[in-house]
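This follows on from our talk about sequence and fold. Please put the record directly below this note.
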Amino acid sequence: MDIIKQVNRLLNYGLQKELFYQEDMCFTANALLVVLGLDDFALLPIEEELAEPSPILNELSSFAVLKKIIEDTPVARELFETKLMGCLLPRPTEFIARLREKNHENPAAVTQYFYNFCRNADYIKTARLAKNIVWKSATEYGELDITINLSKPEKDPRAIMLARQKPSSGYPKCVLCRENEGFSGDWQRAARQNLRLLPLVLNGKKWYMQYSPYIYYNEHCIVLSDEHVPMRIDKATFANLLAFTDIFPHYFLGSNADLPIVGGSILSHDHYQGGCYDFAMAKAPVEKWYFLPHFDDMRLGRVKWPMSVLRLYGCEKRRLVELACTLTQIWRSYSDPSVQIICRTDAPHNTVTPIARRHGTGYELDLVFRNNRTDAEHPLGIFHPHAEVHHIKKENIGLIEVMGLAVLPGRLKAELFGIKQALLQGKQTLLGQEDLEKHEAWYQKIKEQYFAPGAPQTPSIDEILRHEVMQVFLQVLMDAGVYKRTLEGMAAFDRFMAYCADML
C-alpha cells in the first residue's frame, strides 16, 4: 500500500468537500501524520472525485492494523477512521461561523449546508445507509414507508469482551449530551470527532441541533437539550416544537412520548427529532372536526390515520400551546375502561406524541394519544405491537413509526429471502426451520391467499411479500392506537372530545 498516496487522497477529498481550506493543508496533513504514526510525507497532486470517503478510510485503517496501531476489529477500525475524519474538520466555532454566513441567504441554505457537511464528514454514514432495503406501499392511509435497517453495525463479540474488561466512564452521560462533540469514543460508545452541533435558543433555553448518523428520511435531525434532563411532555415541549418551526419553517419537529413502552429508546435526555420530509401522516386528511369552548380561534380535528391523532391548527403560537396543554392535561387524567384506557394504576399511563409543522402562515400541531398500560394478555403493552406481529416488528412504536415509517430489524432481509425460496419450492410449512418458523402463521396466510388452487393471478413474490409486510406494519400501528378504527373506537374518540368540551 502506498500510504503517502492514501493520505493525499484523503486530503484531496477534504479539500474538494470544503471540510478545510487550502490554507489549512499543511496543518491538516500534519494532524493525519500524527494519527498514522508517519514521520515522512510529501504533498502529491491527486485528480479524483469521490462521493464519500469510506474507500480511503478503509485503506488507512488497514494500514493501521498492519502497523499494529489498532486491532483488527470493526469497532477499532471505526474509532480510528472517525479520528482521521476529525483531523479534516474545522473547530466548532469556525463551523458555526460558516453556518451564520449561510443564514444570510435563507433557513433552507443553512440546513442544506449543515446536512451536506455531515455527509461529507462521514458523520452521516452514507455508505452504510445504502445497504438499507427501502420501499413505499400505497394504503388507504396514504403511501407508507418501510426500511429494513441494515446500516447499523452488528455487535462485535470481541468489542463486547473488551467493554466488560474496561467499563465506560460516566462522561459523557449519554449519547445525546452535547459533550459528545469531539468525543474519542471507546469500545461501547461511538467516536464523535466528526460531530458538529448547531446551537439554538428555543424559548430562552439553549438547545443543539445535529443530524442522525443513521438517517431514516431526508435530513433526519435531532434537537437535544443543553441539560441532561429526562424526556417530558409539557408546555415547554409544545412551545419549543413550534419555536423551532419559526427558525426552520421547511422542517417539522416532533417529540417521542415521555413514558416507557410508548416512548423512544432514550428517555434520559430531553430531545426531539425532525427533518425535511413529508410523512404520510402529515398528508393524511382530517375526517372529523371538533369545537371546544374558549378555543373558537383554533381548528381541531381527528386525522384519518391508523393511530389516534388530533390535529390542531392556529395562527398564534401562544394559543396553540395553551390548547395543546389543556388537551394533554385532560388526557393524562382520562379513563375509558370500555376501550381499555386507564390513565393510572401504580404509575401514570396516558401521554402524547406531539409533532409540529408550519401550515401556510400558521402552525399545525398533531397530538397522538398514547397509553403504556400492560396486562397478562399483553405483557409488553396493550397499545403496543401484539404477539401475532412480533415476527416482523416487536420493538416500541416511536415517533418515526407513528408518522408512517417502519424501521424493521435487519434479520428480515435473510428471513424474507428464505420465505421467498419456500414459496418458490412449494413448501407446505416453515416448521423445523429455526430462523423462519416464527413466520409460520403468516406463511400459511400468504399461501392460502395467493397460491391456493383457484387463487387469482398474483404479482411477483417480491411484490407479494412487500405488500404483506406493509399490511403487518398497518396492524402494528393499529395495535398502538388507543382508539381502534372501528365504530366503537371512533365513538370512544368522540366521547373523549365531548369530555374535553365539558371540562372547559
